[in-house]
């Protein structure tokens, strides 16, 4: 056991552990002088004995004044040793370090003061103990006592100076110390860590940028700190690193992209803005090097295009354009499937701008990598069909453009037609709200005749007769009213004298049989008046129901539109177009007398020259051809049989709906 009195005079001993600081200070100066004398003669053994004795006084549990005296004595020893102080640095630091966790704040304060004095003496030799010192400084930065914090701040500044001027500091060993503390929430600790990051980054010989991914996540965490000072300091540090990145030839794009992607979906606006600002630079700097991370980046950029913050939206658009330009030039290494999946997933985003950009990505991929996209069509087709129900017309038009580009191939075109009808079957509200827009846009983007022919072929075999009727009525109304389908109407008007028109008429006929009024309007448009009159005569009680009359009312209204101007003009020559008059009078007879449609049609028929519109004229020989030059070129019998066959199917269906049990029993 070492007796301290055997090393220093008893008076010095008493003063060193006195309650008064002045007496302890005097004792420390005397110890400093004694140690300087011992070092001068090379008596390091007595110095070691003195250190061991003081360490005994600084152990936890000893009186507070003894711990304070031991600390100030330790300062005196190291100052007295001068240039040889590092000889005993390890032995004296060990007891000093133990005082930093002392419950007495004044002891912790003196521990800071002692370590400060020791650091001033040994300077660069302190680096060997940097790990322990950094840990102590980090804890002291959040010390509850303000005096201890102030002392720790001075000590921290000195240690920073020592580190920045040292050639022995290892940033590789420092980074783990830093990163394991970056997830703390204490504002004082955060300020402490930012301070060290900033200081070390300012040293030319220390490459903090090379380790940026290790602590970047932590800095982004601090951007959402409740205290504005912390946010400002973190932002300043990040801004400095961003400027340095612009001059860096290489980066760890993998880790950087992972961090930035995660932060770009932060609920904190400033964090989100900073992350995509960084991402913008990453994409610009990396170019083709960021291709492996395309999908992940795109996955956060597309939602940011609709961000509530204008600055975020602007940067997101810029990144999106940059990605588009890179993919237009780059082909190697691009995972089309992942990008397509990300874009397709955003079709359900709540914001229109994001959905539009997602569709533009799908369209561009389809243009640039058609074979790859078509190979993955099963993965995206349902989503594209669902997008037809989008509330935005802009989105729907773009969806249709994508569908049209896919449907260039005959097989894919048929798949689209089948799927589209299935979509309308399931969601008939879509047919009523958007049917005209969808069909017309497809006709514009693709070949209109091809669209109608394919839809007609599918509907001809449609097992759901009710849906077939509804769909045919919709297609017929679109055909008769849409300006985009003017050429189709012109083609049908020539069906009696033109082979192409005749073939098109025949291609629609079978499916149009699902709706009597649609078939009548088709015949009127094609000027097949004799056949239209036959259709009217075949109608019976079951056919003339409320739905039929509603559709017939629409047809009468259409007869007054420019689409049927040829009919109105032909009424000026009733002797030549007797079958037309028979059709119109037949329609008049089917209409309820009190209806507006009845009055409209009757008014129109009254305009026909009276001398030529008598009943006698209508009773002219039935075997005479009044549909200019048609009967010899078209055999209507099979068509009439087709109409009757389909009409009978609808009758059976109607009876089953009225009497399902009795019908099944009789069967």
TrEMBL record:
Keywords: Membrane, Repeat. GO terms for cellular component: endosome membrane; PAS complex. Residues 429-608 form the Vacuolar protein 14 C-terminal Fig4-binding domain. Its main location: membrane. InterPro entries: ARM-like, ARM-type_fold, Vac14, VAC14_Fig4p-bd. Transmembrane segments: none annotated. This is Vacuolar protein 14 C-terminal Fig4-binding domain-containing protein. It comes from Stephania cephalantha.
